[in-house]
Amino acid sequence: SRSSVSHGERAKCHPNALARRLFAIAETKQTNIAVSADLTTTRELLSIAEALGPYIAVFKTHIDIISDFTSDTTDQLQRVAEKHNFLIFEDRKYIDIGNTVQKQYRGGALRIYDWAHIINASVLAGEGIIDALSRTIENGEERDRGILILAEMTSKGSLATGEYTKASVEIARKHKEHVIGFVATRQLSADSRSDEAVPGEDFVIFTTGISISSKGDALGQQYQSPASAMERGADFLIVGRGIYSGSDPVASAKAYRDAGWEAYLSRLEG
Ligand code: BMP
After folding, report:
1. CA–CA separation, 228 vs 150, rounded Å?
2. Residue 191 has pLDDT above 90, yes or no
3. Residue 209 CB–ligand 1 contact under 6 Å
4. How close are the terminal C-alpha atoms of the chain, in Å?
5. Using one digit for the tens of pLDDT, what is the confidence trace for 170-183?
6. Could you tell me if 244 and 256 are in contact, meaning their C-beta atoms sit under 8 angstroms apart?
7. Is the C-beta atom of 27 inside 6 A of ligand 1?
8. CA distance 161 to 150
9. How much is the ipTM here?
10. From CA 50, how far away is CA 66, in angstroms rounded?
């Protein structure tokens, strides 16, 4: 991530076409919000996508929690994504041997490759998982596909730290054609202004565990504020219950968008 550079600049210069598209969306819609739409029916999923579409850059799904899933669920979601110009991120967290994740990504009942622009994977199983997912992208017909490496987690006692997080960055550096960045709580590779900056490297940081009003939940989730996450180097803020669980999700989405965008602008000036 290059936190001192504008989304507009990154939209022009990023080597990956999907990342360019992502930054262009952020710049055009003036939002760095990814809503985590953890809803459990097709009707709720599509209605929140339709309502929040104008205020978000990315729509994050857990498609395996939809109780009435059919291919129509994701066909319709793709239409809403085109209408409101956002990307779809399936938070599948692939974590298995290469041969298995290729089947989980490309096939099965969910056919995630067909409709999700962005997926994520853990490197617990080693570098082969990223190789396998990259090959699925290379052998497929969709060009706008990208991978995020799950480099850290926000849950209490997370073991995704230290050497694991370091290995995440090293593996990402070897797979820059398809790995566009990380799910992490902070900047992981050097800022472009620092001496350690790697020329041409521009990983995108998606940060989960964001709330304006809460510090955590009863099951170990830990939150930080939009301003704190942006200060630590986030590029996109993933917000779930903070947006969809209140009485007015649209008003909440606007509040998170404003907070995230204001923090982004002050970082640019800083
Ligand atoms: P919420 O904002 O309601 O706490 O939801 C957070 C979302 O981000 C969930 O979909 C969860 O699966 C995901 N997530 C997380 O909370 N922490 C992580 O470290 C990684 C995640 O993907």
Report:
1. 20
2. no
3. yes
4. 16
5. 999 999 999 999 99
6. no
7. no
8. 11
9. 0.99
10. 17
The tokens for 189 are 């590779």
Mutate to test the pocket of ligand 1, among 66, 94, 206, 238 (most ligand atoms within 8 A of CB): 238
Instruction: Please check whether residue 101 is in contact with residue 93, taking contact to mean a CB–CB distance below 8 angstroms.
Output: no
**C-alpha of residue 191 to centroid of ligand 1, in Å:** 25
Question: Tokens for 3?
Answer: 């936190």
Closest of 119, 18, 24, 21 to residue 64, by C-alpha: 119
Q: CB-hemisphere CA count at 13 Å for 61?
A: 30
pLDDT above 70: residue 2 = no
The two tokens of residue 183 are 């799910």
| Coil, strand or helix at 80 | helix
Structure tokens at 158: 């997370």
Q: Which two structure tokens, joined as six digits, stand for 112?
A: 């995630």
As given in the structure block, the two tokens for residue 1 are 């991530």
pLDDT at 46: 98
Distances in Å between the Cα of 265 and the Cα atoms of 130, 242, 258 are 33, 22, 10
